[in-house]
Amino acid sequence: MIDAHNHLQDPRFAGRQAELIQTMKSAGITACVVNGTCEEDWPAVARLAEDFPDFVKPAFGLHPWKVEKRSETYLETLRHYLKQYPHASIGECGLDRWMKSPKLAEQHQIFREHLALGVEFQRSVTIHCLKAWGPLLDELKKAPALPKFLLHSFAGSWEVAQECLKLGAYFSFSGYFLHPRKEKVRQVFKKLPPERILIESDAPDMALPNPEFPLNKLNHPANLRQIAKELASLTGLKPELFSVNTAELGLVAETSGLQAPASWRRPPVSKPLHKPLHLPNKNGHGDRRSPPP
Questions:
Q1: Alpha-carbon distances of 207 from 18, 53, 223, 238, rounded to whole Å
Q2: With contact defined as beta carbons under 8 Å apart, do 48 and 34 qualify?
Q3: What is the per-residue pLDDT across 92-142, written as a single tens digit (0 to 9) for each?
Q4: Is the peptide bond between 72 and the residue preceding it cis, with omega within 30 degrees of 0?
Q5: Which of 6, 166, 177, 213 is the most buried (most CB within 10 A)?
Q6: DSSP code, position 186
Q7: Nearby residues of 49 by Cβ (< 8 Å), 6 or more positions away
């Protein structure tokens, strides 16, 4: 199993990462993508990647909630991390109109910059979106080129999902969607093409009901095992497929030998995907949050 999105660098986990990772491994988790949210926590993400190189895959990005905290040189710093960590992805970034007093113009500009970096560096981008699906789709559709991208903890409608599929989107399912009131979200994931579904813990947030690994009021990342089991039961898919999809998206190295037999996949229900445009780079080479109820 691979956790496609968490925040092990979160201060609420401070000093406990080694213990958490050991429990994750005992639960059958083989890797995780640790997403940065701002310049202040990028060094912590980098340290985790260096301390646990066979387990932690770093991602660096500016979360829309942290837009106001960025420095004038944030983009230069972000480029530095992407160059220093060639296996890193980009994220968490995106658009958020649920937050109090959102700086929408700044969010949009920063989101465009992240998408452009994804194309230039040929890295996958992990996207956060709350109450902003229309604006997000507009940005994706008008972008001159798109990198591979993940809509993490996707809670949009089936209609939104269909539009995103046309652009090549991947979607990740978090344990928060196991709460009874999230039935509509679960129904959307039942309709998604199997090859586009990932799983995530989003630890320490997005807690699931009756967790296998309780951790006071926090979400333990080892709960990914329970998430995988529940989603597999919901969709009729093999849990291993979610890890295959994570590798195919490029969030983890594709050298793991993962591949999905055809028997694992149910027939997709959506129309064929439109392949996003990928441009060469300049060298010529091809939450600290709880979502609304």
A1: 21, 26, 9, 23
A2: yes
A3: 999 998 877 778 899 999 999 999 999 999 999 999 999 999 999 999 999
A4: no
A5: 6
A6: H
A7: 34, 56, 57, 58, 85, 88
Q: Are 197 and 165 in contact (CB under 8 A)?
A: no
Tell me the per-residue pLDDT of 273-282, one tens digit each, with 9 for 90 and over: 333 443 334 3
**Alpha carbon distance 221, 199 (integer Å):** 11
Domains and CATH numbers, the chain: 2-261 (3.20.20.140)
Q: Which residue has the tokens 């793991």?
A: 256
101 and 65 in contact (C-beta within 8 Å)? no
14: left (phi over 0), alpha (psi -120 to 50) or beta: beta
The answer to whether the peptide bond before residue 268 is cis (omega within 30 degrees of 0) is no
Strands (E), 97-183: 125-130, 149-151, 170-173
